[in-house]
Amino acid sequence: MKLNTPLLSAAVLCASLAAVSPSHAAWPSSIDGQALPSLAPMVEQISPAVVSVSVEGTQVARQNIPEPFRFFFGPNSPQGREQSRPFRGLGSGVIIDAKKGHVITNHHVIDNADKILINLSDGREYEAKLIGSDPATDVAVLKIEADDLTAVTLADSDTLKVGDFTVAIGNPFGLGQTVTSGIVSALSRGLDGDGYQNFIQTDAAINSGNSGGALVNLNGELIGINTAIIAPSGGNVGIGFAIPVNMVQNLTNQILEFGEVRRGVLGIIGGPLNNETAKLFGLDTKHGAYISQVLPDSAAAEAGIEAGDIITSLNGKNIRTFQELRAKIATMGAGATVKLGVFRDGDRKTIKVTLNEAPGENIQASIIHPALEGAKLSSYNEGGIRGVRVSELDERSPAARNGLQSGDVIIGISLLNRGRVPVQELGQLREMLSEYDGAFAATVHRDGSNLMVILR
Questions:
Q1: Catalytic site residue 108?
Q2: Is the dihedral of CA 178, 235, 327, 306 positive or negative?
Q3: Which of 7, 132, 193, 199 could form a disulfide with 189 if both were Cys (CB 3.0 to 4.6 A apart)?
Q4: Known active-site residue 447
Q5: Which CATH number is 153-254's, of 1.10.10.10, 3.75.10.10, 2.40.10.10, 1.10.340.30?
Q6: Where is the secretion signal located (predicted)?
Q7: Phi and psi at residue 311, in whole multiples of 5°?
Q8: Which CATH superfamily includes the segment(s) 264-357?
Q9: What are the CA-CA distances from residue 256 to residues 103, 197, 281, 439, 446 (Å)?
Q10: Catalytic residue among 97, 108, 287, 394
Q11: What is the CA radius of gyration of the chain?
């Protein structure tokens, strides 16, 4: 919903309000026939799409045992012991699909949660199911079964400019839905260099509990998911960060389709384009991604990208930094074809590249089926064997007690009253078990032979 009210200048507004008699109890709704500007209509429209997220779970903490006291714990005692501690947490979320009940939040909000509750702005509460998450980008997708939901409209975050107005909506400190406003302070920000960071920086007040909430424009369209702050004093200091909605949408589509993020990879090594490098190559801007090396047999090598190239755009949108290019490529998904604007030897050209898939990443198997709890799974396709690999396993977990071992490759499953179905990838396994809670048999490839494992 666009604000149709033209903004009054601060001087006109202050002068006009000063002329209002203090004896008038009612605040004026207009001055000289011109309506006062207000974000209320937009906030009223967008608020039902922003939810509060509360979680409960158990964290495992390791307590070191000093050497002189290990005798009391037995000769085979480890150097430390693990203790399980319950925890509770609060955050925010955004409804992106009203019909299917899909909710976006941050991965760190729901990490290790055993129970996730969604509280709507109208007071309704629902238990949510985790569809999938991506720790590297801090995005998680939840699902609730509810009617009469309101979904947010997505903007194009690539069109944002520094100085654009922003509004943050979330649940800071568990107070309930709270609205703050500001501007886009910077774009393509990174914090510690880990993960795939391409943040929108804003001075709209963001505090603990705002994580996973909405950052919207004045049209009430989602431009980002609030995720982090710099807070030396422990509270808001006007430096908050949000994941651009275009990245969020790419990740969400992959999680919903495959049950995991199939990260795209270009196959280049490089860094930021500084003034010195730009002048050396005759480029009149310092915005871009400088390529120092192209990896052999990579998507970039196959497409003709060369060391010394400077990538200035991705699908027609300017690239500011190497970090921004890396983050956007990684979230577009393996198999996507992109158009890169390249500056080489004084000439500009456009090169099409089909992205390769990054090495498989693990997901917690408990979100697929309770019998798989304790295992981490990844898609597997090597040596003629294709399926889902148990890449990590907690030896005390239900998955281990059911007979799975680290390194097993699940190549097929049999459900009750159904025949055996081959399993070729993680997304397929997830889809087959998404609405199935009973016991099932898994055909497992282990040490060169196949065996059957009953998982219950």
A1: yes
A2: positive
A3: 199
A4: no
A5: 2.40.10.10
A6: 1-25
A7: -85, 120
A8: PDZ domain (2.30.42.10)
A9: 12, 22, 43, 24, 30
A10: 108
A11: 26
**Whole-angstrom distance, CA of residue 1 vs CA of residue 46:** 9
| DSSP, residue by residue, 402-426 | TT--TT-EEEEEEETTS-EEE--SH
Q: Which numeric CATH code is attached to 363-455?
A: 2.30.42.10
138 is catalytic: yes
Per-residue tokens: 408: 């097993």
Contact 223, 217 (CB under 8 A): yes
Cα 183 to Cα 202: distance, rounded to the nearest angstrom: 6
Q: Catalytic residue among 52, 134, 138, 445, which?
A: 138
- pLDDT average per 10 residues of sequence, the chain (456 residues): 40 42 50 76 92 85 52 48 75 94 94 91 92 88 93 93 94 88 89 73 89 93 90 75 94 85 84 78 80 87 90 89 87 88 88 82 70 84 84 87 92 82 79 77 92 90
48-67+78-143 in CATH: which number?
Answer: 2.40.10.10
| Domain residue limits, the chain | 48-67+78-143, 153-254, 264-357, 363-455
